[in-house]
Amino acid sequence: MQLQNITCPLVASLTFLLPISPSLPLSAPHQVNIQPPTSHPASLREHGGAWKIVQRNYVMFLFTGCSIEQHSAAIETDIMPHIIGIMGIMGAVWTDRIVYIARNVNNELVDSIRADPGVEFVDLDHELAKLRLVGDTYLFDTYMPKD
Questions:
Q1: How far apart, in whole angstroms, are the C-alpha atoms of residue 37 and residue 43?
Q2: Beta-sheet pairing, 99-102 with 119-126
Q3: Where are the beta strands (DSSP E) in the chain?
Q4: Superfamily of structural domain 3-143
Q5: Would you tell me how many other CB atoms lie within 10 Å of the CB of residue 96?
Q6: Beta strand spans in 25-118 (E)
Q7: From residue 68, how far is each of 62, 76, 80, 118 by CA, in Å?
Q8: Contact status, residue 17 vs residue 30, Cβ threshold 8 Å
């Protein structure tokens, strides 16, 4: 593999910051060495459980140093119209990478995204449950991304 052919630098992802727990001080993040995958396409992950899959919605995890512009160039598509959010995971903050949710992604586009060497992995998007207090009772509301 020739480095100049890599769209987003994989070398930058060898050491990166893990999400910071809200209870940990921001000045002392934990560091871990993780090896990037040796082949592509990037993994397509489903976490199972009771959450319903949101069809044609995906969560993309880019490697450290890969920008949305580099990613769009690699997949030869402007991804911005598909993006409905750039987010943290489970309340933690990703300070070292871009994680975004995209909607209306067809099979051809998700294949292009997974083939980009700047993409670490892709998750299927799921409905989320939100807890709210009504009187003395907690109710779960289901959140669905808007079309």
A1: 9
A2: unpaired
A3: 15-17, 31-33, 43-45, 53-62, 83-86, 99-102, 119-126, 128-134, 137-143
A4: Peptidase S8 propeptide/proteinase inhibitor I9 (3.30.70.80)
A5: 16
A6: 31-33, 43-45, 53-62, 83-86, 99-102
A7: 9, 12, 8, 10
A8: yes
Token reading at 108: 């051809």
Query: For residue 97, which of 105, 87, 85, 84 has the smallest C-alpha distance?
Result: 87
Between CA 147 and CA 76 the distance in angstroms is 24
So where are the chain's domains? 3-143
Q: How far is CA 27 from the centre of its chain?
A: 24
Mean pLDDT over residues 92-97, rounded?
68
Asked if residues 13 and 35 have their Cβ atoms less than 8 Å apart, the reply is no
Q: Whole-prediction pTM value?
A: 0.60
* Residue at token pair 């397509």: 44
* Pick from 64, 75, 59: nearest CA to 113: 75
Over residues 52-82, the pLDDT tens digits come to 888 999 999 999 888 899 999 999 999 999 9
Six-digit token string for 91: 């309340």
